[in-house]
Specification:
homohexamer; mainly alpha
């Protein structure tokens, strides 16, 4: 199913979303998922990224801002850091990422939002340390 | 608190988000909330809309697409229809709204997403009936 | 297990919480649960009410205000109306019940809280109609 | 992705789970999903049913009992009725379905479980009416 | 909005709830929130504490017991420890706090409740160590 | 309530489910729960295990596969590892446990399922280390 869709436009390879979002972590993330369960890794790659993300009227930045908000709704699991980085990799500014997290305050309440901002701080602090 | 922020830019009145999102339903929605609890209505107006929505680096369309996704995460309560309409009022195309709902599939699973698409269908059908 | 606890104070029968909370609806509610599943009905009566509610350092009013908040966290299922009535039956004022629902705003966000206030309004309106 | 897997055993067509679960409702359900969003319908058919359900070490009855429990965790959306029927179609007895719903009591609490048993009663009552 | 309310009764300053709940941790908590996001910190202080908590028919002890139960519903994030301490600071006994956590058993199931009691134990153990 | 039920069939002692699921960890787990709150420990033992688990038309393996899925729905708290082990102790193969976790993908989305598979990997790795 994904093949025919993805190959229609050769200038937009079917794995673009996945490559931009994961960035330099691409191979490490896929290996970790592969280590959890090969079928799970295949579903995440083939279905979530190369099908759902690719077949979308939304640009990747908006998709990733939505992904961040949805991960906050789930209690900010580790995937949130992958997608905070993904949103930034897709062109969102830090202030736009903060805007996505802040939308969680009226819809989900403060504790969920605070956990989201903590994940962001921990990502930004790690970036700072690397540069420093 | 909101006053100083909102008044800095006189070209952007503090209630812009609320007026665009609610559109022609503005007074009806506020009256309904007022009937539930006056303090609740005040918090939604003053804090959620005139503070959180206004003080954001995100444009209103992106905010509303995120709101739709977050409402799907809560099981698509009636507010979802308000914000599906809000996203369209803020300039999102139907395909972009579908894109926001589809992001819920990989993050929240199918049942939550199906309920979101049902709310969209019910909104679009009602629009069709009005026009027809 | 519940027997020894409940019988220690003969002035406080083991079914007090259940009788106060359900009030005039007591038999109707138990019959409805019995119709769903006899074992489920037994667990709700013997474990939830006659054990957990009875063995508590909290007074019944506080327990019911907490029950209302927890039911709002679950998306305000029909049980919420039973426990809004239960909180009032246990001596809470309408303003105190509103206080419990309002606590859901900072912790769970507005949509959950709005659904809670709608259940309260629907209960109060029904009371009004009966009296009227 | 699903093709190579599904075709390895020609005696087990790739749409078996879907046909058993949906039963006589098969075409009606797919049409309804198609009416919500064609891509959503395709994902549910190709990914959820013809891939995830088919590639499993679990028999269909166990899968459906798990599906019922997971749908109760989501607050018993309409899909629960489809999968209560699906569990029975796949060979579960009414008592086994009650067993799956009862497991939700210790893990999710009573309100979620009660909603699950209400969906079951409503399905069984409708069956009774048809027969009657 | 909060100003007029808070200033009506000069004997009850607008930051009373916040000062009692946070206690000796007041400045540390606000600084940590400030470090996450200044607007988030402002919303928690001005809206959650100095508005919602202050404008309530419930006494602070009851509010904090409800807050503890709601935080258990969210999976016992770190904020739970702040509000277990807050409930005790507001005059709840340890047995009353246990009563609030135990209410989560029938409404949310055992795993959520166990996580709540673990947060309480970890708070009480830390207190013991300090005294010791 | 549980006494009369459990003692009816002397060949099936009332604590069978609990002893199989907890296995060699039985006393350690009960002591830990006892240390959290004696009434909580009693409810888990008497109600959850010796009543709900025992009075079931489902075999223990199916009950534990359902328990694993429900714990994934709650965000994979530490209890998940107890019940992954419990499912294996009750006769499930590793592939059947993977099947139960994979059912969470279509119903709950990927992040919840990934956390479930991480708990499984961490359990299997610990087993490997012990043997090694």
């Amino acid at each position: 199913m994904t093949d025919t869709e993805g190959h229609m436009d050769p200038s937009r390879p079917q794995d673009r979303a996945r490559r931009v979002i994961f960035g330099s972590q691409h191979d490490r993330i896929l290996e970790r998922l592969q280590g959890l369960d090969p079928a799970l890794a295949a579903h995440i790659q083939d279905f979530a990224y190369d099908t759902v993300y690719e077949q979308s009227a939304l640009d990747l930045k908006t998709q990733e801002l939505i992904a961040c908000a949805l991960l906050v709704s789930l209690g900010s699991p580790p995937e949130l850091r992958t997608h905070l980085r993904g949103a930034l990799n897709a062109g969102a500014t830090e202030q736009e990422v903060r805007g996505a997290l802040m939308m969680c305050v009226p819809y989900l309440g403060f504790p969920r939002a605070v956990a989201g901002f903590e994940a962001l701080k921990s990502h930004l602090d790690a970036q700072e340390t690397k540069k420093g």
